[in-house]
Amino acid sequence: MNTLTDALRQAATAGLDRLDAQMLLLHALGRSPHDRAWLIAHDRDPLPPEAAARWTGLLQRRQQGEPVAYLLGEKEFGGLTLQVDARVLVPRPDTEVLVEWALDALPASGGAEPARLLDLGTGSGAIALTVARRRADVQVTATDASADALAVAQANAQCLGMPVRFAHGAWLAAVPGEHFDVIASNPPYIAEGDPHLTALTHEPLSALTAGPDGLADIRQIVRQAPTALLPGGWLLLEHGHDQAAAVRELLSAQGFESVSSRSDLAGIERCSGGRWPSAR
Question: Quick check: is 133 in a domain?
Fold first, then answer.
């Protein structure tokens, strides 16, 4: 292997996606993973020995299924660059549907009291930090049961200069006695034993699975949320591609109103939510 083109040809032979290979090669070269134009313009350049060694290591790890985001140490989400590693799930574009709904559900700025949003199970901080960036007037709180995940989210908040408040604990137990206009969560929702888990072995299992049907954590959140929502507040949940009807049923049975789902760009119902009544 002599040139950058040779390196990319090696990756193609190994079955790597071309965009992934380009990003990893740029990373090995110490350049931004977004600098693809440079890579195309310098495809005949020789691959320096030190970069070649890094490239070989990255290629091997990717072949073993490690996510590109972990190899790069970062992932773009909602216009933000988030630092990620094996302590947290890699943020997915699907979750942007949840963020947009949360922004729509928040009260308008200029009220007597600032609007309050709670991000349950924040992981890398993707939801909380995106909302904080787009609505600087909102008081954002983010929780996680994993101290390791919370450390990642706190580091991202510090790096981005976002004044998000963090709390350690399982679901609503992390914020006892507090009330919010919107509670948003991307909880674990994959059923234990689901065959898709074999492709996710590098990500934290506790952030992926939730009981035999994948709804154990969602049930708990739906049950607990009314005590933490302000009158008229919204609970918004991301879930699996085939769980929307079940989640809507849980919300309705708990007493939520205006229960509905929102779809991703592929037309799949990706999030469901409901509004807690203004008066009971």
Answer: yes
